[in-house]
Amino acid sequence: MRDETGETQDHEAEEIHPLFRGAPGSTEFRKLRKRLVRETRAAIETYDMIRPGDRWLVCLSGGKDSYTLLAVLHELKWRGLLPVELLACNLDQGQPGFPATVLPQFLTERGVPHRIEYQDTYSIVKEKVPAGRTYCSLCSRLRRGNLYRIAREEGCQAVVLGHHRDDILETFFMNLFHGGRLASMPPKLLNEEGDLNVLRPLAFVAEADCDRFARAMNYPVIPCDLCGSQEGLQRMQVKKLLDEWETRAPGRRQVMFRALMNVRPSHLPDPKLFDFTSLIPDMSDFSEKDVPILREH
């Protein structure tokens, strides 16, 4: 008998992907794992991400989110719910102190097909970005360009990223506060060249769940501060703001995310998004009897 995640309830202990080796046996962890699988599967289905037979380049940074992405996608494939080929990929960008052996060893020991690519984009970023400015924007563009190239070389149809619900929310507020536009990270995107999809299967998953999962699995998480990212970054400020709102009103993040999925163009003042010029009252059935009589007192 299979539950909503597609797994066999009676023999769960025997049916486990190597990425889940050493998983805690607690009820709490099993609920967490099932929730991650359920929410990831829901995002994949909601945004029609699957084309059976495709090959996905699963981008692995070594952070908690990408480990969670890798494990959950392999869980879905293990259960026969994801009919695509998965290739894990880590792009070593040459940051000082990056532990280059951690991910190759991790992936090899667990039998995960992978490609490790070294491209020293860090030196380029250091050269181009003025002192005191954040590296994130240029670093991301260089990383994305290399990942697109690798995907094409490997015959992949999709580049799969580990951005979760909170990333999507933070990007929305970054654009709102600093970019002057209503935009965020789409769960599914076609690149400018039109030959690759960019997918975010963790779009419905909370960051806190990724953190709990990676900690429980004791994955060798590599911190994202090797480049000396500043605490005063705009994204960190937005994250702090969302944390404060969540503390005051638990569940606020989920409510805001639902709002992003419930857009009413007619109630936003963007004339490119809605045809306001066609809103003309029909007076054909209007007559004088419909006008209230004003009496002087």
TrEMBL record:
GO terms for biological process? tRNA thio-modification
- Provide the residue positions that the database annotates as binding [4Fe-4S] cluster: C136, C139, C227
Write out the annotated subcellular location: Cytoplasm
Motif PP-loop motif: where in chain? 61-66
Domain annotation tRNA(Ile)-lysidine/2-thiocytidine synthase N-terminal: ranges: 56-217
The record's listing under Gene3D superfamilies reads: HUPs (3.40.50.620)
What are the record keywords, sorted? 4Fe-4S, ATP-binding, Cytoplasm, Iron, Iron-sulfur, Magnesium, Metal-binding, Nucleotide-binding, RNA-binding, Transferase, tRNA processing, tRNA-binding
- GO MF annotations, alphabetized: 4 iron, 4 sulfur cluster binding; ATP binding; magnesium ion binding; sulfurtransferase activity; tRNA binding
Report the principal subcellular site.
cytoplasm
State the residue spans of region: Disordered: 1-22
Pfam families the record matches: ATP_bind_3
**Does rRNA-binding show up as a keyword for this record?**
no
Query: Among the entry's GO cellular component annotations, what is one?
Result: cytoplasm
Task: Point to the regions of Basic and acidic residues compositional bias.
Answer: 1-18
Q: Which reaction does it catalyse?
A: cytidine(32) in tRNA + S-sulfanyl-L-cysteinyl-[cysteine desulfurase] + AH2 + ATP = 2-thiocytidine(32) in tRNA + L-cysteinyl-[cysteine desulfurase] + A + AMP + diphosphate + H(+)
Beyond the main fields, what else does the record say?
The thiolation reaction likely consists of two steps: a first activation step by ATP to form an adenylated intermediate of the target base of tRNA, and a second nucleophilic substitution step of the sulfur (S) atom supplied by the hydrosulfide attached to the Fe-S cluster.
Output the HAMAP family linked to this UniProt entry.
TtcA
Report what the protein is called.
Answer: tRNA-cytidine(32) 2-sulfurtransferase
In its UniProt entry, the species of origin is given as Paracoccus versutus (Thiobacillus versutus)
